[in-house]
Amino acid sequence: MENFNKLIIRVVQGMTLILIVLNSLNSSAETFSISGKVYDKITNQPLIGATVVIKGTAQGAATNNSGEFEIQRIVKGYYIVKTSFFGYASVEKKLNIERSLHDLKFYLEETAYNLDNVVITGTKTAKALKDVPVITQVIGSKELKKIDAVNIKDVLEAELPGLEFSQHGYGSNLRMQGLDAKYILFLVDGERMAGETGGNIDYSRLNMDNVERIEIVKGASSSLYGSNALGGVINIITKKPENKIDLNVGSRFSAFGDKKYNASLGYGHKNIKGVTGVNISSFDGYIINDAAIDGYKSMNINQKLSYDLGKRIKLNASGGYYQKEMLPDPEFSNKAKKVRDRYYDYNARFKGDYTINDRSSLDLSYSWDQYDKYNYYILKEKERRDYQNTLQSLKLNYITELGGRNELVTGLEYSSEALMTDQFLQEGDAYKTFDFNNIVFYAQDDFQLTEKFSLLAGVRFDNHSTYGLHATPKLNLMYKLFPLNFRMGYSSGFRSPSLKELHSNWDHMGMFRIIGNPDLEPETSNYVSGSVEYAKNGFSFTVNAYYNDIKNKIDGLWDHDQDTMTYSNYDRLQILGVDADITSQLTKNIKLVLRYSFIEDRVPMDAVRLSTTSPHTAVTQFEYSFKRKNYQLSVNLNGRYIGSKDFYTSDGEDKNGNPIYSKVSYPDWMLWKLTLNQTLFNSINISTGVRNLFDYIPNKSSFNSTLTSGRTYFLGVQIDLDGLYRTGKKYLRPNK
Q1: 541 burial class (0-12, 13-18, 19+ CB within 10 angstroms)?
Q2: Among 69, 84, 247, 469, fewest CB within 10 Å belongs to which?
Q3: How many CB atoms lie within 10 A of CB 667?
């Protein structure tokens, strides 16, 4: 530990020296600025959040809610300025900048796919999708609107095969690429979320109304994100504050009392910008085949602020408050008559960005998130807290370009987690609290060897307070041979045992016990993948094959009497998989998407298949779109297929101590969703549609089947009041 801390100090000293040298070399030459607007080519309406960058430099800007942008401090010379926006084809202009240029105009046209979209999750740097050696899937805000995504479950099920949500007694349970939710790291703007149940975060906290895009990286990502990223990363990137006033209100209604109301206010004055969002939801719940889907009511409030402190320094702050109360059917649950579960979350994040010069930048961030669970006693009108999870992290990140072909990322991180839960033993009137901390150094070099060949190499060192020092390296290669992109990658994964897995001692009303194991070893993995991508003339095809070998896999094992489960390491889990994706712009107005996933997971335990993962899954989308100046229409038909599966469940042991298994089979099923989305005057959005279009209901309901209630209908309205005011003012303005 002492040697590692000395290493960290030396690294900080070295990074500080580099910053001083780079800052002293910063050019003092005369500079200029460019500004203008970005429009939709068909509707002639401004595009909000479009990216404008000067190729070959780190300079760029995003358009505000009027579609305007400005880039300052540009040295005299010839440049290529590129503009891109999710779902639109990029446009480039060659400019000879000898003076400041204003009133530039860019017109973008929608496309089936755009490999120029900028992403950050796979490398922690802003790169075009086509240039990222790590396969990354992006879902933009426009796609979220077209599929009427109310929550993260809607998004992932519509877009990703190889992913399954099931309903357990504690709530939703996620599996992706054959791995449980505890191996999938969810981030909001790059920061972890506190609170979990059965390894799952509280998915209701993720408000889709304020999402700019979602970036998904499958496979081990521990070399950048550490523990819990052994199976992949899902990064929800929220909308940035923009200039001027921007007021939006909306509501949505569906079956079983499913209601949602939302409002957001964006504002800005000079260098200060902010956005405030409120989301209120409620749901009555229902019962299907003797299985209950509980109702709830919730509220989510988020605040985001930014401040430009001069030309080099940007400060950002955000915070949120969340509360949710479960409303189970009292006729189905006797407990519901007396006690309800309540959940609260409080979070705050601060970040400062310093641009050293056009090739180097530094950012420092702090994040705090606390998630609480309470029992609310209805008759006494009192709460009793039985769970509290607190996460904190402090990060220093440095990015620099070296020689024009290298982009080096280095960083330091300190993180801590504390957990109090009723699954731990009591100390007096309170439950025990356990914690740990982690000190991290990571480095990554993105090297453009030639125009066609690039290499990405990185390593992360975690010094865990319980498990000591651990290194997770990665290596990714990419080769371009237009219209093909080839990628190969290796990454090492690491997951330390959770505090629950280490310290649980929980008796569930005398029915069974869950016992932790302080002797658990961390899980490690080796992940290898290879892919080929073809994109040309409105058609793209991608196929990706991967192999994930996980050692020291942690799981709960039941004893002889099937009444006590103890967390233990067993040998290994091997996962083989293939993902395929076809996207085709059949005509100017019609787009077709087909995605398929095959998964085979192997657990060497008594030669039987214990995994509940469906080997074959697929999603499909058929979209028709129509655009005019003041009217846009999209019709989206989305289908999701889950293949049949056979697996075995443990029934204890026979009299000789041999395990007994029972075979369980589930048939395949498919659900369809039809969404009609209309936008009037670029300000009023009306979404209507049908879930479970063909009214499929399973014969039996369990953890491994869909718990759909059958066909339901929905209606939603979203109004941009500021945009509507501007449009009305334009049309009512008297002719001069």
Answers
A1: middle
A2: 469
A3: 12
Closest listed residue to residue 368, CA positions, set 385, 351, 392: 392
Question: What is the rounded (10 degree) CA torsion for 110, 116, 119, 123?
Answer: 160
Would you call the peptide bond into 698 cis, given omega within 30 degrees of 0 as the criterion?
no
Torsion, Cα of 281, 287, 290, 294 (10° steps):
20
CB atoms within 10 A of CB 555: 15
Are residues 13 and 396 in contact, defined by beta-carbon separation less than 8 angstroms? Answer: no
Do 582 and 593 contact (CB within 8 A), yes or no?
Answer: yes
- Residues 5-45 have pLDDT tens digits of 454 445 445 544 544 444 444 444 578 889 999 998 888 88
In this prediction the pTM is: 0.88
Cβ(232)–Cβ(221) under 8 Å? yes
Compute CA 369 distance to the chain's CA centroid, rounded to the nearest angstrom. Answer: 17
- Do 643 and 615 touch, CB atoms closer than 8 A? yes
- Tokens 């997770």 sit at which residue? 472
607: three-class secondary structure by DSSP: coil
Model pLDDT for residues 248-302, shown as the tens digit of each residue: 999 999 999 999 999 999 888 888 999 999 999 999 988 887 778 889 999 999 9
| Residues 62/29, Cβ–Cβ less than 8 Å | no
Q: Identify which of 165, 195, 422, 191 has the alpha carbon closest to the alpha carbon of residue 324.
A: 195
Q: How far apart, in whole angstroms, are the C-alpha atoms of residue 436 and residue 421?
A: 15
What is the token pair recorded at 474?
């990665």
Q: Is the separation of the CB atoms in 350 and 317 below 8 Å?
A: yes
CB atoms within 10 A of CB 481: 10
Closest to 244 (Cα-Cα) out of 273, 281, 280, 279: 273
Checking DSSP bridges between strand 31-40 and strand 101-108, what pairing results, if any? parallel
User: Do residues 144 and 157 lie in contact, with contact meaning Cβ atoms separated by under 8 Å?
Assistant: no
Q: How many Cβ atoms sit within 10 Å of the Cβ of residue 433?
A: 15
Three-class SS of residue 66?
Answer: coil
Which helix (DSSP H) or strand (DSSP E) does residue 23 occupy?
Answer: helix 2-24
Residues 522 and 492 sit within 8 Å (Cβ to Cβ): no
| 562 phi, psi to nearest 5 deg | 60, 30
Place of tokens 């077709």: 592
Are the C-beta atoms of residues 51 and 62 closer than 8 Å to each other?
Answer: yes
CA distances to 66, 68, 627 from 48, rounded to whole Å, are: 7, 8, 17
Sign of CA dihedral 552, 414, 189, 92: negative
CB-based burial label for 269 (10 Å; 0-12, 13-18, 19+): exposed
Phi-psi region of 657 (alpha: psi -120 to 50; beta: other; left: phi over 0): left
Q: Residue 483, preceding bond cis, omega within 30 degrees? A: yes
Only one residue has tokens 């703007």, namely: 189
| Distance of alpha carbon 175 from alpha carbon 159, whole angstroms | 14
φ/ψ region of 596 (left if φ > 0, alpha if ψ in -120 to 50, else beta) reads beta
Amino acid at residue number 201: I
| Residue 707: both structure tokens together | 């718990």
Q: How far is Cα of residue 440 from the mean position of the Cα atoms in its chain?
A: 22
